[in-house]
# Entry
Amino acid sequence: MNPIRRIRPTRAACIAALAAALAGLLAGCGGSGSSGSSGSSASSGDHRGGTLVLDWNGIGSSIDTAVDYDQNWTLLYMVYDGLVTWKKVGGAEGNTLVPDLATAIPSPTDGGKTYTFTLRKGIEYSNGAPVKASDFVRAIEREFTVPGPVGSFYQGIVGGDACAKTPKTCDLSQGISADNAAGTVTFHLTGPDPDFLQKLALPFAYAVPASTADKEVGPSNPLPATGPYMFDHYTPNQEILLKRNPHFKEWSKDAQPNGYPDEIEVKLSLSTEAEVTQIEQGQADWMYDQPPNDRLNEIANKYPDQVHLNPVPQVFHMALNTRVAPFNDVRVRQAVNYATDRNAIVKAWGGPQLATPTCQILPPDFPGYEPYCPYTTNPGDGKWHGPDLAKARQLIDASGTKGDKIAVICTPDEASKSVCLYFVSLFKQLGYDSSIKVLSAAVEYPYTQDSSNKAQISFSYWYPDYPSGADWFDVVVGCNGFHPNSTASANLSEFCDPKIQAMTEKAIKTSVTDQDAANQQWAAIDKATTDQAPWIALFLPRHVDFLSARVGNYIFDPNVLVGGPLLDQLWVK
Amino acid sequence: MLAFVVRRTLATLVVLLAITILVFLIFFHTPGVDPARKMAGRNPSPATISAIKHAYGLDRPLPVQYVILMKKLFISRDLTSYTNQGELVVPTIVAATPVTLSLVFGAAIIWVVVAVVMGLAAAVLRGTVFDPILMMIALIGISMPVFWLGEMANLITQSRYHDSFLFSWVPPLGYTPFASDPAMWFKHLVIPWLVLSALYIGLYARVLRAELLENEHEDYVRTARAKGLSERRVLLRHTLRTSMITFVSLFGLDFGVLVGGGALLAEVVFGLPGVGLLTYQSLTSLDLPVIMATVIYGAFFIVVVNAMVDVAYAWLDPRVRPA
# Structure
């Protein structure tokens, strides 16, 4: 769905990945090189200076925090700040919230409906203006008034619903009160929201000067920065250059540490092939994109020390449309789940170093994850062991759908196509009249979302915005994620089971007060959904970071906003 | 003459209008195309989508949308990209043009000079072993697609032999403007120039040789010889000049197409941020405003270069000059 893969694993998973990776030649793991720097401060370290060069096979996205949805977040993260953020460290700790521009993380009052933040004093934008409490009201208002994504994240703020309906008359003065003299911002919600603080950590809620207009800022007039870097210039299709923000003083090493490189240059529009070559030659230091599969052997053999593998909380799957034949029959959905040889898919994706089979909706180390795999030979231990073709054939015979036509939809890249071709041949083997339907990457996702296209089965993946079960079961396989005849319908399976939905709503309520109890409920929901088989869950990918030889201090940030190394913590000197 | 210019301009406008309407219709009739969906991010609500549609006028009838697009492109010039709404399309194209011009002019100079020398040499050396050898080399040049040759050049100069003394001077893929560092500009472009010209050298050398041989038996050549002119003078001043007519009209077409975005593959392979790369990216991301602008830019250049060819024609061939 998106050129940069975002990720959030934990240290434990990382070690497991390392063990798996040792079987092959790819070695290294997030955080493994990180301890070297822990003693020295960024501002006084010997490693300060130089230009970090990054390659990105993209054209560059918006740099307006109200508009960009995770294309440029890696950069926005180093340039702007919100009230809270995720801790800038490797490992599982990277998923904990810490105060950023606020002095502390407040506990909600008024039954979970009110949050009051106090701002740190003396923080300035890169233009010298002070950061004020009213800036946060403006930031959230712009979410609604500048055409672009979002809305739903902040709709729970008093007045948010009206803003979403009629952006022109958006007024959040009832929902957010700012006291510039005292430096406090208070949010009033219409109901308790267990994920509200996580939502405030997203770049959408980052501070912007209160005078910022309701128009998207372009590459030539970026918003003033609060972080260690600011946009120096940005030529779409060519390059982005970050330079140090002269007004930045480190206020919290956990929230926004000072960076090592003096400049960060992003070269846009290169092919992934060229990116690999540039890193090999030391002309670039890191690539946003995953190296192409046919170069993996080369980099693993020749530069094993420069490759890092980390698991990511994504689940690649085939979305089965539960409202179109033959997958409207749960027996057929279960049958294809039984029949799928997940090892074959893993092989098509690049081998066991790059992917692990899975059968369920939630990824490992996610709140509420309990290993579960009913679709295997010898089920019981939660692991996948092998396909059960006999059971699959039985279920298909009982469904009477043999001979149905099935079009498997996928994008033109080699890895996706090989996965889809596997399913075309599997379905033929099971007695269906199957074919492949390749759609351009720009078209495929909106096409499969729109229920009027009646897409039967498509290759897809999902990752959460923040660690919460609701971001899976209330969105990608939940009733609230399905919008008929709209291209905005993340629930590709069109799966909506009233019983499971009731469980989901209960779990959301529980998580306001008791996270552990909620996690148990999420585990039950995960099992119930997996049994209904809206997906063929296929594998959990590992993220490949390929760095140039000169780079030091690699820290894999598990957070969704980064999904790669903490860029400004890399040494180039 | 004036009537000719007017007729020609009108025809151009009709062609441009037809092309833009066609591009527009194909775009909106491709299933799954929804610019608002793209702008809305990962998991938007249908309300967000309709708000974006409204803000960008995407909920209006197609003819109205077409007129708005054209107005923004030509009159107010504030057309913005769909993938990055802060990015103005017209300045982006203007910024990409020098890259494409640098690439195509350099390659054109190489291919014209080398093709003329090769074609002449092959014609003069006809009957010796060099003629077939030269034509074979030309055929090899024609047979190698730009994207393949480019990747091979990259493999050798950027990767495998980059550390050797031969290619250590080759900078990373990309572009440096002439104004900021002429030496770097040259280093960035010299390999793309050679790669892009390989195909055309082969083609043009073969065309020129064939023309030279055909014209050798024309009356005016015999007359020139009868006047007692030296062989060299006959060849260069008489035979070559008329043989260049086909060469020049071919050149006009190819050059126009390349400047208009036809150097797309070379630009993609070498990471040169010109109009071709812009076209390629706007096509892959279905960015209609940029697609539209690059199409119009391309059509414009093809028309302009063809007009220039007509003038060159008149200079080369007295028969087409107005009396």
Residues 315-543 of chain A form a domain with the Dipeptide-binding Protein; domain 3 fold (CATH 3.10.105.10). Chain A has two domains: 11-265+549-569, 315-543. The first strand of chain A starts at residue 51 and ends at 56.
